[in-house]
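Thread: "does anyone have the structure for this chain?"

Original post by V.I.:
We have the sequence but no experimental structure in hand. Need at least a predicted one for the grant figures.
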Amino acid sequence: MFNKRLGLILLGIWLIVTGLLKFISIPVPYLGSIMAVIAIVAGILILLSKK
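Reply from O.Q.:
Generated one for you, tokens below.
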């Protein structure tokens, strides 16, 4: 249950940050890579919790 909750929290963070980046330009190095890692980890945690 913890994996699913953490996965959904990461997914929520990813969605919010992705939406904000369309309106606000934030100069963060490797932001694309960071966002990709968050999306991958969230997806894995959500899929693992489906057992």
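V.I.: this helps a lot. DSSP finds two helices and no strands in the chain.
O.Q.: and The chain has a mean pLDDT of 86.
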